[in-house]
């Protein structure tokens, strides 16, 4: 049976993944209100079609941070891709390269950064950073991704503490015990560390700390997790290069706005000074269109990429969103 829409990929992935893995991918924070609202909010928006336009030739190409992509649909950072397929992030990188779109690699990748780059050497890659309490580890990672050819640094700002993900609390040990983070080893020993022994994300990170990161790299810095006018204005004030409007797929703080509902507020606040992107709830081409119409330069897709990996057809999944 052909897989023709993301719902088909979701159903196929559910059949092939273990319960604990499925819970990890699909779970949200607390009652999952925001996770579900991310999708429901798109359905409340109606299109106003205009006809008698020449659409015999359509060009979906655009640019993000000056780099061309084939369509404004890219891959959001999600961790532990080897849960869905043995090649993990290497397969994801190959799919992104084949589709000529950007792939944001997570700090919590289950493949080494070197292997990911080797799998798709011509791909457009950004790196997502969870700020570690040890500044030396942050410095080590930033220098590594810059040397490996990553083109932007995406700092996640909405995880001062990990969200209350109830399924993860139940399943964590069984799910994570065999996964190792290749790029979060001690700078002294170079050892990898298992997920369940990871040091916490730095809860003290503040706006004033951005200057330290800017001093460490020439890469454009993008903040992921902005939902309000006030924070968007501060992002511009602190000279970031882009904003990803995101609520972490509803996995962090429950009962915050759906990403698409926060988008117009953020777009209005930045006044065109930085590029604005969006993730959360994208499931159809219509969803992409709505986000672009409301001011997003590009959208990023998270959970569906893992469904595609479970089906071993991540590149086909990207095509299905475009159509």
TrEMBL record:
Residues 1-323 form the FMN hydroxy acid dehydrogenase domain. Glyoxylate binds at residues 165, 248, 251. The keyword Repeat does not apply. It catalyses: 2-hydroxyoctanoate + O2 = 2-oxooctanoate + H2O2; a (2S)-2-hydroxycarboxylate + O2 = a 2-oxocarboxylate + H2O2. One of its GO terms (cellular component) is peroxisomal matrix. GO terms for molecular function: (S)-2-hydroxy-acid oxidase activity; FMN binding. The active site is at residue 248. It comes from the Eukaryota. Its cofactor is FMN. PANTHER family: 2-HYDROXYACID OXIDASE 2 (PTHR10578:SF149), S -2-HYDROXY-ACID OXIDASE-RELATED (PTHR10578). This is 2-Hydroxyacid oxidase 2 isoform X1. It comes from Odocoileus virginianus (White-tailed deer).
């Amino acid at each position: 049976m052909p897989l023709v829409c993301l719902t088909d990929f979701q159903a196929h992935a559910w059949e092939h993944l273990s319960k604990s893995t499925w819970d990890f991918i699909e779970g949200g924070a607390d009652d999952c209100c925001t996770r579900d609202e991310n999708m429901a909010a798109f359905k409340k928006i109606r299109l106003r079609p205009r006809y008698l336009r020449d659409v015999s030739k359509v060009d979906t190409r655009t640019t993000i941070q000056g780099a061309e992509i084939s369509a404004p649909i890219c891959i959001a950072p999600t961790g532990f891709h080897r849960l869905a397929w043995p090649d993990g992030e290497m397969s994801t990188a190959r799919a992104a390269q084949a589709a000529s779109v950007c792939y944001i690699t997570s700090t919590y990748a289950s493949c080494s950064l070197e292997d990911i780059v080797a799998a798709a050497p011509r791909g457009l890659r950004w790196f997502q950073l969870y700020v570690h309490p040890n500044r030396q580890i942050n410095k080590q990672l930033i220098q590594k991704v810059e040397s490996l050819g990553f083109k932007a640094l995406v700092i996640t700002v909405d995880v001062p503490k990990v969200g209350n993900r109830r399924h993860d609390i139940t399943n964590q040990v069984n799910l994570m015990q065999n996964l190792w983070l290749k790029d979060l080893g001690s700078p002294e020993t170079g050892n990898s560390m298992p997920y369940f022994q990871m040091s916490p994300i730095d809860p003290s990170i503040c706006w004033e700390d951005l200057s330290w990161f800017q001093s460490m790299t020439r890469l454009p810095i993008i903040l992921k997790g902005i939902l309000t006018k006030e924070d968007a204005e501060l992002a511009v004030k602190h000279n970031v290069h882009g904003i990803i409007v995101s609520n972490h797929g509803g996995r962090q703080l429950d009962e915050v706005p759906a990403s698409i509902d926060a988008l117009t507020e953020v777009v209005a606040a930045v006044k065109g000074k930085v590029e604005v992107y969006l993730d959360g709830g994208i499931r159809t081409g219509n969803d992409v269109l709505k986000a672009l119409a409301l001011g997003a330069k590009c959208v990023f897709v998270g959970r569906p990429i893992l469904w595609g990996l479970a089906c071993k057809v991540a590149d086909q999944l990207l095509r299905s969103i475009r159509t």
